[in-house]
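Hello support,

Our group uses your service weekly, and this is the first time we've seen a run hang past the timeout. The protein is TPO protein. I'm not sure whether the cause is the sequence or the server load. Input pasted verbatim:
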Amino acid sequence: PGLLLLTSFLLHVKAGRASPTRLFCDTRLIHKYIGEAKDMERKASQCQALPPLACPMVLPLVDFSLKQWRAKTNETKRREILCELALLVGAATGARAEVTQECAGRQLGLLQRHADSFLLLLQTFSWQAGPQEPGCSLRSMEHVQLAGIFLTYRQLVQGKLRFFFHDLAKDACE
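Update from on-call engineer: The timeout came from a worker crash unrelated to the input. Re-ran successfully.
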């Protein structure tokens, strides 16, 4: 899945006129990733009952106001999603180290690879040259249930990432 995203990215970047945003013109791609996020969440919920994690994981709160979201620049949106993805990857890594069940570990590994792919993609470009914004200042919450990672990832892909891809498509696609 991560290789597919990277390959799609590379196929849409033209020499001399690199435009990674062309990747977002095909809306089927984001819908594919939403479906995969839902599938991971469903498969993880079917694993044997897992005890609460010994170390609570910090997950970003990914809910948002559409009105406030639309008022942000693409660069601000990109940075916000990058911060949330980084926190999610860290939580998945920590949980994966603690979980001994193969079923849950496999789904965590898949989530980690998908989130890493989005991180790599979003790190490859930015739209505004200008003053750097301060580092991540996220709203977050501690969770001890593994299901929280999958729920947060699905909500992020289904929400902010989908709207972000849509915004990019509006600006870059004909």
